[in-house]
Structure formats: C-alpha cells, structure tokens
C-alpha cells in the first residue's frame, strides 16, 4: 500500500528527516498499521523527490553523518490536496483470499470442509476484533487512531457477517 501521500501530509507540518518521519508516521497511524520499514520510507522519499513533490538538503552533524532534511514543494502541496479530495476505492476491490477459500471449500462438495473453513476464519476474526477493541479502549491513544481502530473493527464485523451469510446459505 503506497504511503507517499501520508509522508507528504507529515511534511506539510514542516521539514523533517527520515527517522523523524518514521516516528511521526507510526505515532499518527497507531499500532494497527505496524512498524514502517525505514528502507521503504527512504525509497518513498526518493520517489517523491524524483517526482518533484519534495526537495532535500543536507545538514551537517558534528559526530554523525550529514542528515538529509526533506521539505514539501508546491507541486507536493497540490498532489496532496488532489489526493485528499479524491475518493478512495477499496484497495483490493473484492479480490479476497477468504472469498477464494469459500469457493474452493464449496467445490469440494463436503459441508464439513466449508464448516471448517468458516470456523477457522471466525476464530481468527474474533481474536482480531478483541485485539482491536483492546487497542481502541486505551485512553492514551489519539482520537484519530481510536477512530481508525473502530473502522478496522467494523470491517472485521462485516467479515463476520459474511461468514454468517455463507453459513446460512450453504450449511442450513
């Protein structure tokens, strides 16, 4: 999933170097996203620079190598604005591994196989839902992170509803 626009949004707040951006990103999106690979971040910054959305300068440090500081350009401001005001379709559409497993399980002709697939997925989703709810209840989390965790929980709940639909249609 591309993160270049998130990086631009962080740079909107002011110039920053790679490790500051990594820390700000992880703080902004919370634990559900996971750690941001610093190597990937530098690839994104290189691409943004090549596309003219950021520029950079070197800052000398006494003991460490020079630090590269990135700034958003006017073109980067326009790109970020365009991205924020455009709709966001589902990233993977409806190509989902679970859907394929349900298709494969039903093609076996064995209701037990379908039931096993649904049970394994339900157990996984319930663990995920408990984890999301625990993370969301942490009062130290920023409001926007709690909202993103709530949205993730709703997606998991929708997947659980899908499992109920499959069960009702195929196993009743």
UniProtKB/TrEMBL annotation:
Residue ranges of domain Transcription regulator PadR C-terminal in the record: 95-170
SUPFAM superfamilies recorded: Winged helix' DNA-binding domain (SSF46785)
Entry-linked InterPro entries: Tscrpt_reg_PadR_C (IPR018309), Tscrpt_reg_PadR_N (IPR005149), WH-like_DNA-bd_sf (IPR036388), WH_DNA-bd_sf (IPR036390)
Domain of life: Bacteria
Location of the Transcription regulator PadR N-terminal domain: 7-81
One Pfam assignment: PadR
PANTHER family per the UniProt record, alphabetical: TRANSCRIPTION REGULATOR, PADR-LIKE FAMILY (PTHR43252:SF2), TRANSCRIPTIONAL REGULATOR YQJI (PTHR43252)
Protein name: PadR family transcriptional regulator
Provenance organism: Catellatospora chokoriensis
């Amino acid at each position: 999933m591309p993160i270049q626009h998130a990086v631009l949004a962080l740079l909107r707040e002011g110039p920053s170097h790679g490790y500051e951006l990594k820390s700000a990103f992880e703080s902004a999106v919370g634990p559900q996203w996971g750690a941001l690979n610093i190597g990937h971040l530098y690839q994104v910054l290189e691409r943004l620079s090549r596309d003219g959305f950021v520029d950079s300068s070197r800052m000398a440090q006494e003991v460490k190598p020079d630090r590269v500081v990135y700034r958003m350009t006017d073109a980067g401001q326009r790109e970020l604005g365009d991205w924020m005001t455009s709709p966001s379709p589902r990233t993977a559409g409806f190509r989902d591994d679970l859907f394929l497993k349900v298709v494969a399980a039903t093609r076996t002709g064995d209701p037990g196989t379908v039931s096993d697939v649904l049970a394994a997925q339900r157990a996984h989703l319930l663990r995920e839902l408990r984890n999301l709810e625990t993370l969301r209840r942490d009062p130290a989390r920023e409001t926007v992170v709690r909202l993103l965790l709530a949205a993730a929980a709703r997606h998991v709940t929708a997947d659980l509803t899908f499992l109920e639909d499959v069960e009702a249609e195929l196993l009743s």
